[in-house]
Amino acid sequence: MNKEKMIHLVDTTLRDGSHAVSHEYTVEQISAIAGGLDAAGVEYIEVSHGDGLAGSSFNYGWSLTREEDMLIAAAKAIKKGKLTVLLLPGIGTVENLEHAARCGAKAVRVATHVTEADIAEQHIGIAKKLGLKTFGFLMMSHMAPPEKVLEQAKLFESYGADIIYVADSAGAMLPEDVKVRVGAVVDAVKVPVGFHAHNNLSLATANSLAALEAGASFLDGTCRGLGAGAGNTQIEVLTGVLDKAGYQTGVDFYKIMDVAEEVVEPIMHRPQVVRNAPLMLGYAGVYSSFLLHTYRAAEKFRLDPRDILVELGRRRMVGGQEDMIVDVAYQLAQKKGGSHEGR
Amino acid sequence: MNKEKMIHLVDTTLRDGSHAVSHEYTVEQISAIAGGLDAAGVEYIEVSHGDGLAGSSFNYGWSLTREEDMLIAAAKAIKKGKLTVLLLPGIGTVENLEHAARCGAKAVRVATHVTEADIAEQHIGIAKKLGLKTFGFLMMSHMAPPEKVLEQAKLFESYGADIIYVADSAGAMLPEDVKVRVGAVVDAVKVPVGFHAHNNLSLATANSLAALEAGASFLDGTCRGLGAGAGNTQIEVLTGVLDKAGYQTGVDFYKIMDVAEEVVEPIMHRPQVVRNAPLMLGYAGVYSSFLLHTYRAAEKFRLDPRDILVELGRRRMVGGQEDMIVDVAYQLAQKKGGSHEGR
Fold it and tell me: Are residues A14 and A132 in the same domain?
């Protein structure tokens, strides 16, 4: 752990945080938040629909503000930092990325499931040609063992990514899980490594510290921890903790606290606490998109939905396999000899 | 770290959590919460005014329910666990403790400032004579170096305490701070060691894990993290995290989640989040009783109250020294050459 080195902070209040306000940021709110973060010294300010460029849709939820207006407002408000966008190949396209660059984006995070880095090769290549700082972002990293995570990280590096992120998208990792995965990637690639945490197990801040101990130098967060479910790492708290632990971030602790309390808190739809549903997602290590299907299956087979979630996590089921939840519930019910429905 | 050993959980929703509901628990709520925790398998269930036995007063806030009614209701609801009370020598007396034992208390935590264990000798002696499981509880442990904490722990042990607690009352510790203090006490005493966390830096859960790694075997928490300011360790999350990390607690994860969401959450006055004021208390490592005096002094000398808090923490000022806050503010203002008031 080298505390002399600079820790780079990425604020994703206006991207991942957007899930928690139903993607309803106004242009004025985007300006105020992006401008406040920039004045506080945040280096990367991520602005996109919660599911990335072109995420605004029937499937993922419509944004209140058009993507172009969002990016232009943020670009105007940011003087020193880098306007950053997220791209999920399959949702966003190369055209969306080129458009974002024209609107002022200086960095992009190309995100894939932890085992699917190969679908990002073209997007990373184009991002580099556009002159963008390019991050490869491995989602749901808890689902793969360290050797798989590092293999995928090396793929990203071979495509030209400038920074590789390990993301604990379900907030399912313990500090030790973070250390082994981040440490494996740090040892395997030459580029800097980052970590993106979620707070489902109340460990987002501690896991961020664990990532630094394992050699990471980029960390994510959101004001007040804004984000789906239990939310993300609370960036103003993280800033204070890093300062207290002796790390340098270049972010003004008081200023970012003020952005959180005066600008972001008043527009939140609900407090960012760990209720039982996100706690169970983190405990089981499963996608939030499984919840609704799980509740339905639990009712049908008279099961505790928590038992289904734990079983889905045990089987390492991934997004897109939602239709199999009923099968899993049926098998659980059979095993318990409880329900006769569904036979 | 020996994961085979049993971790003992102490729930303090009905004591430390009481601060966050202005000590307004009703008899029905006390029965429901104590009964729920007991059914979930929690071993120690702490019930007292937030400031301990006899805390109900003009100075510390009146309890809605009389102490006797509180204890009798809890004792009736608890079948397997131990009804536990807190005693702060100077607020509660030996008579209060004897009364609590008659009402059904089976355990007592005798709490002092981290440097004042010697004021607890008589109380610990009487507690042992009453047949109570007796904890020595060192508050604000971040203010003393490990060698001082272990010296005070040994005093408690010499008086007969069955368990020694290191308490991070201001939520000011980083995991490393916890490890060195808890580790020092574990090495110095023969009795089991516990850790009480606060969440001002979003590290309560992680610090609890760090305490176990350093050899502790008792941990505190409250449902939904209920407590003053940023609150305590969220006990249902802690239960899940300990389970996931391979520790045994004897607590049913689903049942304690249900108590938190169905019984405790509906009676909370506000969500338990990390707003700026508790964040600053944890960052600076100072008492919450300093806040009001600090805001007044900041206004008088046109200072940022946060600068005053940081200075108070740097000087390791303790409770009772509130009148010196104006002096500290005056000196800060002089140094900044800002204000001419107060001369």
Answer: yes
